[in-house]
Write a sequence for this structure.
């Protein structure tokens, strides 16, 4: 009886070893073939009636499946061998929407300009859209090193250059481009809102400034809450003059610690 028990145990032990070897070999084979072992993951259901999702799916549907798989691989995702083409395309749709912050229900909160900022980094992050885009790109990649560099660069540029100019030379160049990129505001009507003109210029002085650009149809002005600057709206006779107003005065520093802002009303 004891010998029979030993024989059965040995057989079971050999079977267990063979199963373990097969599992390792299977994983290695998948890796060799460029495929990951099948992993069951729960994906959030997307609302295909949502126009954002539907539009992205149509774009993805127009691409060859090879291109779809390659784009996923570039993101570090290898589609399981058992996944059909439709599911692979749906996976890419979800990846694109999440990467761009357009996933329904997960949209990025828009940064709203503040009256006061803690430092130059916070001010730039809220007011420079190109800087925002670069910062968010680093955030999505979980690149805290570059995020910290962006903050340090705005707070103490010389110190940041001293520490990072050698290792992060290319990134600092990209950062400079972002800082020097002027946002182009496109208007949809000849009416603009404005703020930031010093109070000592006066209502008539500001009216004359805008009138010098072209015909002014309507104009109103009032002092800001702190009494240091003025704000209001202006309606020009045509879009060209309104756009010229944005181009010439938006972002102009008037020496009050803030800049003039011209935007769609």
């Amino acid at each position: 009886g004891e010998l029979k028990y030993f024989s059965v145990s040995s057989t079971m032990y050999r079977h267990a070893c063979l199963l373990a070897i097969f599992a390792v070999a299977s994983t290695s084979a998948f890796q060799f073939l460029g495929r990951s072992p099948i992993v069951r993951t729960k994906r959030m259901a997307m609302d295909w009636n949502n126009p954002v999702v539907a539009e992205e799916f149509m774009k993805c549907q127009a691409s060859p499946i090879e291109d779809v798989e390659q784009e996923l691989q570039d993101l570090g995702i290898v589609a399981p061998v058992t996944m059909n083409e439709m599911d692979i395309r749906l996976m890419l749709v979800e990846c694109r929407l999440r990467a761009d912050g357009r996933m329904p229900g997960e949209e990025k909160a828009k940064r709203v300009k503040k009256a006061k900022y803690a430092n130059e980094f916070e001010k730039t992050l809220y007011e420079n859209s190109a800087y925002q885009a670069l910062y968010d790109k680093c955030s999505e990649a979980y690149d805290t090193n570059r995020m910290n560099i962006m903050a340090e660069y705005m707070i103490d540029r010389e110190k940041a250059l001293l520490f990072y100019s050698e290792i992060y030379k290319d990134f600092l160049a990209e950062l400079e481009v972002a800082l020097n990129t002027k946002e182009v505001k496109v208007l949809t009507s000849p009416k603009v809102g404005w703020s930031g003109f010093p109070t000592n210029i006066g209502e008539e002085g500001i009216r004359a400034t805008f009138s010098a650009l072209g015909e002014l149809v309507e104009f109103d002005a009032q002092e800001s809450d702190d009494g240091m600057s003025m704000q209001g709206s202006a309606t020009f006779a045509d879009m060209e003059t309104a756009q010229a107003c944005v181009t010439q005065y938006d972002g102009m520093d008037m020496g009050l610690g803030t800049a003039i802002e011209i935007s769609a009303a």
Q: What stands out?
A: The chain is about 50% helix and 10% strand.
